[in-house]
Design a protein that fits this description.
By secondary structure, the chain is α/β, with parallel strands linked by helices. The protein has one domain. It contains five helices and four strands. The chain has a four-stranded mixed β-sheet, with helices on both faces. Strand 1, helix 1 and strand 2 form a beta-alpha-beta unit. The mean pLDDT is about 95.
Length: about 120
């Protein structure tokens, strides 16, 4: 989804690729429903790690969360995240699930969930 504001009850337990930044407000929207995993854009990380603050918030809920590098995918464009995003940051829950930084997002999801991505 291009914006995490579109997350809804039907997304519970799903892998959500959001093109929103990974800041506090995005973490709030992602926290409304128990997602299986969620990925954001790191927005260049920013001052005091503001662009990845959602990862820690979701860690507290036991939700695997990560970001893609803002140089690999356009903020606001979920298709670009899916097709070109490279994982840049992860919370501990995501690492424990098997996600790794530096992998293309599709490959990272496929390796953890054993799903075909193309």
């Amino acid at each position: 989804m291009d914006s995490i504001t579109h997350v809804e009850e039907g997304d519970t337990d799903q892998i959500v690729v959001s093109a929103s930044h990974g800041g506090v407000s995005s973490g709030g929207f992602a926290s409304e429903h128990r997602l299986g995993a969620v990925f954001f854009n790191d927005a260049g990380v920013g001052k005091e790690n503001a662009g990845i603050a959602a990862l820690e918030m979701l860690e507290g809920l036991g939700v695997a969360a990560g970001t893609v590098d803002n140089d690999s995918a356009k903020i606001g464009d979920a298709r670009d995240h899916w097709e070109n995003g490279v994982v840049s940051h992860l919370n501990e829950t995501a690492r424990a699930a098997g996600f790794r930084e530096g992998l293309p997002l599709q490959e990272a999801i496929a390796s953890v969930y054993g799903v075909k991505t193309s």
